[in-house]
Amino acid sequence: MMIRTVLFALLILNSHVLLAESERDPHGWEFRYTPYAWIAYIKTDAEFEESPGEPVEPGGQTRGILDVLDMAYMHNLQIQKGRWGLMNEIIYLDMSDQTTPNSILIDSIDARVILRVFDLAASYEVNNKFMLLFGWRHIATDMDVNIDFPLDINSKNISLQQHWHSPVLAFRYSLPLGKKWSLAAQADYADDLDQANSFMATALLNYKLTNLLNINLGYRYAEVDLQSDVVSLDYALGGYLLGVSFQW
Fold first, then answer.
1. Which of 111-115, 184-188, 195-199 has the lowest mean pLDDT?
2. Beta bridge partners of 201
3. What is d(CA 191, CA 10) in angstroms, rounded to the nearest whole number?
4. Residue whose C-alpha is closest to residue 222's, from 93, 40, 63, 68
5. What are the angstrom distances between the C-alpha of 32 and each of 35, 76, 156, 243?
6. Which among 13, 21, 112, 240 has most CB atoms closer than 10 A?
7. What angle do CA 119, 120, 125 make, to 5 degrees?
């Protein structure tokens, strides 16, 4: 089922790796703003506890994000001075989908999910190639799920709001390939030791178009596991990244 809920995002989260490498004044302030898109496939496993009789287990479904996306906004903002910096990530996703589970007990499931992600992390540049990031991740999702049953049985509606908080630790490695090209790789792990954990790995090719503008192209894979009293969600996401970095 495609309840692409706190997913594509959370996962998209920690997109600081989208920021292109460039020359900078080591003693001055640097600002980078990066709107970006993640054209991902999504494999979702979901289980709802609020269903008549037994939990609803729609099973895994793989879909393209563009098939279910109604509206989205994603950006990354990084401020840096010397070795230390601050990163902020904001993700807003509005998604809807309809699916028919492999079950004689359910006719169809309609779902709408609004996902909001706020990421805040401090960064420390160990050297000109290696950077550590550590901070906090907040995920909020509004879900409205309507389950239709056969034989004219009354449909079941599940509406809920869920929030997750997790500390996150990441590292980034960058490799210049000349004056205009560079490679970057990043991995991060977030875990609240209870209900939420996620892993992401990203590889990017960056091109310095001008002193103020960079183009980023890459690939990201992520796994997300979210639990609550009423729903369990597991996501696997993978796809291409495209970003544009404005820096000054």
1. 111-115
2. 187, 221
3. 12
4. 40
5. 10, 8, 46, 12
6. 13
7. 120
Evaluate the CA torsion angle 59, 61, 65, 66 in order and state its sign.
negative
pLDDT digits (tens, 9 = 90+) for 16-61: 444 444 445 566 899 999 988 888 777 767 676 654 444 444 445 5
Q: Which residue has the tokens 């729609």?
A: 58
- Residue 179 gets the label, from left (phi > 0), alpha (psi -120 to 50) or beta, of alpha
CA–CA gap between residue 238 and residue 11 (Å, rounded):
10
Question: Is the whole model's pTM more than 0.85, yes or no?
Answer: no
CA distances from 236 to 24, 154, 225 (A): 36, 33, 9
Question: CA angle 133-14-163, nearest 5°?
Answer: 110
Structure letter (DSSP) for residue 188: E
Q: How many CA atoms lie within 13 A of 241 on its CB side?
A: 38
Alpha-carbon torsion, ordered 146, 160, 166, 228, to 10 deg: -80
